[in-house]
Amino acid sequence: MIKVLLLFLLLIAGVVLGPMLAGHQGYVLIRTDNYDINTSVTGLVIIYILSIIVLFLIESLFRRIFRTGAHTRGWFLSRKRRRASQQTKAALLKLAEGDHRQVEKLMSRHADHAEQPMVNYLMAAEAAQQRGDEIRANQHLARAAEMAENDDQLPVEITRVRLQLTRNENHAARHGVDKLLEIAPRHPEVLRLAEQAYLRTNAWSSLLEILPALEKAQVADADHAADIRQQAWMGLMNQAMAEQGNDGLKEWWRNQSRKTRQQTALQVAMAEHLIECNDSDAAQDIVLEGLKRHYDDRLVTVMPRLKSGTPEKLEKALHQLLKTQASNPLLHSTLGQLLMQHGEWQKATDAFREALKIRPDAFDYAWLADSLDRLHQPEEAASMRREGLLLTLKNNPGA
């Protein structure tokens, strides 16, 4: 500013003093309809320079006024941002206390001026849902969607699905999950929500499809994944049986891969489903096929429930297993139960005695007593029932 003024002063001095020193100042006439303005060239230059200075001062004044207004607006905006930041911190403390009403109130107030407005509205939506106010939750969620840019819609949609699951809007949540999996198929929270939505809507095939991603993202450990996988297979069996009956169930089983059909848990479940459909012959084939590959107690426990036309196959399989597992009480007990069904009371008695030699069992005592009754040995039968009762009382002292 000082340099500009000095420059103007020098110009004025040059314009005024120059002509004076030269002895002439020139003549200027400005004529209008009603006025004539007479002045020298020096005077005109001085008027021109003064006009520029006046305009410059007026410009500086207006600039200062508008700058003051901008500073004032900036001060108010800065105050609102500080206020929003303080309220966000207070809301986080209330969240730790479980005061969802205050969380919603503090998060939504001045949320537009918060550092991340979308996050504030999302947390306010979840807080409103926690206290059961669905209308307010939807309003906050809609505001968050407006605040979010195109690339930031993922958190909004995740929150939307989470709220839908909280409200038990399961099919809407599943629709949202399907879209989220297209956008972020490996996102841990998306996978976690997908697991819940698919379980609630019995979407067993979809659940099996995301299981590898659940394990890879460490959302589900090996045991949890195994439980989910078995639950999904059971659900598919139930669907096949409910929709197409016994024939549809067997067709579904044939369409599975060999690896799937060799899973013991699925073999047991399939055999139980076939028994429920009154198809013990097919169930027996699955049990015997499974035992050929490897022994499992779960397959053996299904045998007494089979009412097939060829029970001798089951007895033969048990005798074969007893050659290598003579100390297995379950095999002896199962053989005794099958012999009871065929009226071979003496052989059944011998089998139960062998089982009881290895370990005492209340059920085996009861079955042995029934077999002894059939052999007209009531005293020993009563003794076996007494032993079984004592064992039951010992195992269940509070009964």
Secondary structure layout:
Elements: H1 2-22, E1 28-31, E2 36-39, H2 41-97, H3 100-108, H4 117-130, H5 134-147, H6 153-166, H7 170-183, H8 188-200, H9 204-216, H10 222-254, H11 258-261, H12 264-276, H13 280-293, H14 297-302, H15 311-324, H16 329-341, H17 345-358, H18 362-374, H19 378-395
Antiparallel strand pairs: 1-2
Brief sketch in words of this structure:
With 399 residues, the chain is mainly α. It has helices at residues 2-22, 41-97, 100-108, 117-130, 134-147, 153-166, 170-183, 188-200, 204-216, 222-254, 258-261, 264-276, 280-293, 297-302, 311-324, 329-341, 345-358, 362-374, 378-395; strands at 28-31, 36-39. The chain is rod-shaped, with a radius of gyration of 45 Å.
Share of helical residues: over 70%
How many DSSP E strands?
2
CATH architecture of the domain at 321-399: Alpha Horseshoe
- Here the CATH topology of the domain at 321-399 equals Serine Threonine Protein Phosphatase 5, Tetratricopeptide repeat
Task: Tell me about the largest β-sheet.
Answer: 2 strands, antiparallel
Which homologous superfamily in CATH is the superfamily of the domain at 321-399? Tetratricopeptide repeat domain
Mean model confidence by pLDDT? 82
Tell me the strand order in the biggest sheet.
1-2
Order of helices and strands: HEEHHHHHHHHHHHHHHHHHH
Radius of gyration: 45 Å
Low-confidence stretches: none
N-C termini distance: 102 Å
Strand content: under 5%
Shape: rod-shaped
Q: Find the structural class using helix and strand composition.
A: mainly alpha
Number of helices: 19
The top-level CATH class of the domain at 321-399 is Mainly Alpha
